[in-house]
Amino acid sequence: NAGVMQNPRHLVRRRGQEARLRCSPMKGHSHVYWYRQLPEEGLKFMVYLQKENIIDESGMPKERFSAEFPKEGPSILRIQQVVRGDSAAYFCASDRRGRGETQYFGPGTRLLVL
Amino acid sequence: GQQVMQIPQYQHVQEGEDFTTYCNSSTTLSNIQWYKQRPGGHPVFLIQLVKSGEVKKQKRLTFQFGEAKKNSSLHITATQTTDVGTYFCAVSSSNTGKLIFGQGTTLQVKP
Questions:
Q1: A102 to B45: CB separation less than 8 angstroms, yes or no
Q2: CA angle B98-B36-A86, nearest 5°?
Q3: How far apart are CA B108 and CA A110, in angstroms?
Q4: Domain range list for chain B
Q5: In this prediction, what percent of chain A has a pLDDT beyond 90?
Q6: In sequence order, what are the residues at sequence separation of 6 or more whose Cβ sits closer than 8 angstroms to the Cβ of residue B10?
Q7: What is the 3-state secondary structure (H, E, C) of B64-101?
Q8: Residue A65 near residue A54, CB atoms below 8 Å
């Protein structure tokens, strides 16, 4: 019963380095969502992807952040030149068809920028 | 854009007491979902409400969707230490599937 998988679970980076976060959706799910949770705060939507398509990136910061969901392999959230303010938990969620379906969340990647 | 306000932000109760968290919107909602996040964990889906005035129960948890579909509540009867965590309401965008979360209510239960 493979749920949503994310790796790494914890990631430590120094300022200026790159962070790559991976997400494999639940089996049978083709819609992936990324959310960010800053310490002691709620979850904020970042980006919604289907295979090879970005559907909604309205929550993505304009610079340094990018996401992809290739035909083969996991979805990747990439943060270039990380800064301390990027320290957060990044959660990936997936569902079958989008638009009001139940989303299932992965365990998250806790990113710490030193 | 669509927003949901959730109160209270924190609630400390004695084990056995009841607990309620409220979610409010200025606009009519198509649906509302509730999630629970344990400390250090990830959001876990609890329930989705879609009908005006809908009430659903899961053991000691009661979920309500207002008649005007602008508010919702989660009530826990006789809290237990296993209820500790943060409870979020969330609304699914009508255009895409993205979830818009409330700020969450963090529940602490004293044994």
A1: yes
A2: 60
A3: 23
A4: 5-110
A5: 80
A6: B105, B106, B108
A7: EECCCCCEEEEEECCCCHHHCEEEEEEEECCCCCCEEE
A8: no
Q: What is the pLDDT of residues A5-35, one digit of tens each?
A: 999 999 999 999 999 999 999 998 889 999 9
Write down the residue that tokens 């969502």 correspond to.
A33
The residue-averaged pLDDT of B89-101 equals: 85
At A54, list the tokens: 């970005």
- For residue A93, the distance in angstroms to the closest alpha carbon of chain B comes to 10
Q: How far is A70 from chain B (nearest CA, A)?
A: 19
Question: Can you give the pLDDT of all 114 residues of chain A as single tens digits?
Answer: 579 999 999 999 999 999 999 999 999 888 999 999 998 788 999 999 999 999 999 999 999 999 999 999 999 999 999 999 999 999 999 998 766 678 999 999 999 999
- B25 Cβ neighbours under 8 A, 6+ residues apart: B2, B3, B4, B5, B70, B71, B91
Cβ neighbours of B62 (radius 10 Å): 16
At A43, which amino acid appears?
L
Which chain A residues are Cβ-neighbours of B33 within 8 angstroms?
Answer: 102
Q: Does the domain spanning B5-110 belong to CATH 3.40.50.2000?
A: no
